[in-house]
Design a protein that fits this description.
Blueprint (H helix, E strand, L loop, with lengths): L18 E7 L9 E2 L3 E10 L6 E7 L11 E9 L2 E10 L3 E8 L6 E3 L12 E5 L7 E6 L2 E2 L5 E3 L8 E9 L8 E5 L2 H8 L7 E5 L1 E6 L4 E9 L4 E8 L2 E2 L2 E3 L2 E2 L6 E4 L3 E6 L5 E2 L4 E8 L6 E9 L7 E9 L1 E9 L5 E12 L6 E10 L2 E4 L6 E6 L4 E6 L4 E2 L3 E9 L4 E8 L7 E2 L7 E5 L5 E12 L9 E12 L5 E7 L10 E9 L5 E7 L5 E3 L5 E5 L4 E11 L4 E10 L11 H22 L3
Parallel strand pairs: 2-9, 12-22, 24-32, 34-40
Antiparallel strand pairs: 1-3, 3-6, 4-5, 4-7, 5-6, 7-8, 7-9, 10-13, 11-12, 13-17, 14-15, 14-18, 16-17, 18-19, 18-22, 20-21, 23-25, 25-29, 26-27, 26-30, 28-29, 30-31, 30-32, 33-35, 35-38, 36-37, 36-39, 39-40, 41-42, 42-45, 43-44, 43-46, 46-47
């Protein structure tokens, strides 16, 4: 049905139990409250199991001419059936505070079942409707010395400071100065909720609010109560004889308890003392910074450790370590008030490289445990304290240049580079190459063919959190091969120049070697614009298509860049035979000639 439908979540109904579907207040459109002017017509709707032969449905209760006796209360009329439910409706005039529930029966009226309700509205297992002029639960009106923080029902006020007396005001409708409104205060939200359900604990303080002023025209009375705000958080609500504060919209009493919170801006966070990477050498320490905590609270770190990224075996189970107060001071916040800052320190020792440390700060407040991250812990990876190094010659591992530039990288998890030295393995003294502005080192080697094992030695000052300095050393080597000798080239066989080269085909057999560095590349320049890469080959052939004298050069280069070449000269005079008579036999002769020439060329190409 229309407005006001509570959409209750119910347990599986008995076969005859009526289910509340909702109500409509005549003339109130989409109004969502449960408070209406006197004489508002209320139409309720219930449904029952269609397959059960229900004899009748009534609503029982108190107020607005309802009674607790089914036979004398308000009967509902059959409306319609849909699928497996049958619907019944009935109306009454709301004339006073009214509570009601449904009742259905089969046969005799005494053989029935009451609607089962949860204790959802803090007064008992009934549906409640209020007459606004007669009286309603108290509604929060204002608060003094506390500022809204932009969230519903939350206010900020500095505690433990001067002028922190909080005054809270509630308005009661249809009340007078002799009525009682009670303010409930607690450091826990749940205890306020429990009290509204009739479960009381010593954690709740009740204050009878004072009459402040009334407006007889509108039937409104304002009540107030004051108290000193000394905690970091206070929760509050209020009640009167009509129930607890359940105001949820403009002029709307609803079915949910309203609990407000006053906070002093309490907040805390934890982080490692180290600003950079944490290594296996570090004693892991945390700073916990708290805003506006109280003297009675305790802080610390909860953590556990797993083996590595690849292995999630838990090597340290969940552990808690209490922190020690290090210092406290004040800072002005955005509200212009001074926040009390307390900083705590906690140490958990060192871990092995590759371990994963999961942690969060915790807080104990009035024996209740609060964690910093809501259960999603922060993560620290434990790095290897040994620096990672790279070293290599910039240009080439093999070279014929005595001037060699080395490039190096030093990746430290943390700490400061203390020294960097190079041993070039050529008999020269070890050289200091430490230069914060560069990652290269240039050295002049002697002009002697040979291999040199250049080594970089570094030391890193790993000043630990407790200011105990420690030097971590590492080294890395790289080979540099210096070669100043030319490679060897031998031409073993080639097409002879003793007879004329009339078909343009030439071939060359050759061998090459380099004693030290090894061969890098081999080319043949055929002197007709074609250059052929014959690296790893010992035979090459070529076909010239024009007459001429050709200087063929073979060039060999070793890995260090040394070159050697050898040249052969060929004279090519091409001869082309043309048939003199065009006859079938002449044509056949040309075809045979081409075949033989192709065979010879193919045969020559396959020679080794």
């Amino acid at each position: 049905m229309g407005i006001g439908s509570l959409n209750l979540v119910t347990q599986a109904a008995l076969s005859t139990e009526p289910i509340f579907e909702g109500f409509v207040a005549e003339g109130f459109g989409d109004f969502q409250g449960i408070n209406f002017p006197n004489n508002t017509v209320i139409t309720v709707e219930y449904s029952v199991d269609r397959l059960v032969d229900i004899s009748g449905v009534v609503i029982v209760g108190s107020g607005s001419n309802l009674t607790l006796t089914p036979a004398t209360s308000i009967s509902l009329n059959f409306s319609n059936s849909q699928v497996d439910r049958s619907y019944y409706t009935g109306s009454f005039n709301l004339t006073s505070l009214t509570s009601f529930k449904g009742y259905a029966w089969i046969g005799e009226i005494n053989n029935g079942t009451y609607e089962v309700l949860e204790n959802f509205n803090h007064l008992g297992p009934w549906h409640y409707l209020y007459v606004t002029e007669e009286g309603t639960p108290p509604e929060f009106q204002s608060i003094t010395n506390a500022t809204s923080v932009g969230f519903d029902y939350v206010f900020y006020s500095p505690s433990n400071q001067t002028n922190n007396t909080i005054t809270i005001r509630y308005v009661a409708y249809g009340a007078n100065e002799n009525d009682t409104v009670t303010l409930a205060l607690s450091t826990y939200r749940d205890t306020i909720t429990d009290a509204s359900l009739g479960v009381f604990t010593e954690d709740v303080t009740f204050i009878e609010m004072d009459y402040e002023e009334g407006n007889e025209t509108y039937g409104q009375v304002i009540y107030n109560a004051s108290f000193e705000f000394t905690e970091r958080t206070i929760f509050f609500s209020a009640n009167n004889s009509y129930g607890w504060d359940m105001w949820g919209g403009i002029n709307e009493v609803r079915t949910q308890l309203v609990v407000y919170m006053i906070t002093n801006g309490f907040y805390f966070e934890s982080k490692p003392l180290q600003d950079d990477k944490i290594t296996d050498l570090d004693n892991i320490e945390f700073n916990i910074t708290t805003y506006n905590s109280t003297d009675i609270e305790e802080f610390g770190i909860s953590y556990y450790v797993t083996e590595s990224i690849e292995n999630d075996t838990e090597i340290v189970p969940l552990t808690t370590v209490s922190a020690t107060l290090d210092q406290n001071y004040t800072l002005e916040n955005i509200h212009g008030n001074n926040d009390t800052i307390r900083e705590y320190l906690v140490s958990i020792g060192s871990l092995s490289s590759g371990n994963l440390l999961y942690y969060e700060g915790f807080n104990l407040y009035y024996d209740s445990y609060y964690n910093e991250t809501g259960g999603s812990m922060k993560l620290i990876y434990i790095y290897d304290s040994t620096p990672e190094l790279k070293l290599y010659p910039v240009n080439n591992t093999y070279t014929n240049d005595v001037n060699v530039t080395f490039y190096y990288e030093i990746d430290t998890a943390r700490g400061v580079l203390y020294s960097a030295e190079m041993d070039y393995d050529d008999g020269t003294p070890i050289t200091d190459v430490y230069d914060p502005g560069t990652n290269t080192s240039i050295h002049i080697f002697p002009e002697l063919t040979g291999d040199y094992n250049a080594t970089l030695f570094i030391s890193v000052n790993m000043t630990r959190v407790n200011d105990v300095p420690i030097l971590v050393n590492n080294s890395i080597s790289t080979m540099i091969y210096l070669d100043f000798e030319e490679p060897i080239l031998d031409i073993i066989d080639f097409t002879s120049n003793d007879s004329e080269i009339t078909d343009g085909y030439v071939e060359i057999y050759f061998d090459y070697n380099d004693v030290y560095a090894g061969i890098g590349r081999v080319w043949i320049f055929w002197d007709d614009g074609i250059v052929q890469n014959v690296t790893d080959e010992s035979f090459a052939f070529h076909n010239y298509v024009e007459d001429g004298t050709y200087n063929i050069t073979i060039m060999v280069e070793d890995k260090a860049g040394n070159q050697f070449n050898s040249t052969i000269t060929y004279i090519v005079e091409l001869v082309i035979e043309t048939p003199t008579t065009t006859t079938p036999y002449a044509t056949l002769g040309v075809i045979l000639s081409l075949f033989v020439t192709g065979y010879v060329l193919n045969k020559r190409k396959n020679r080794k």
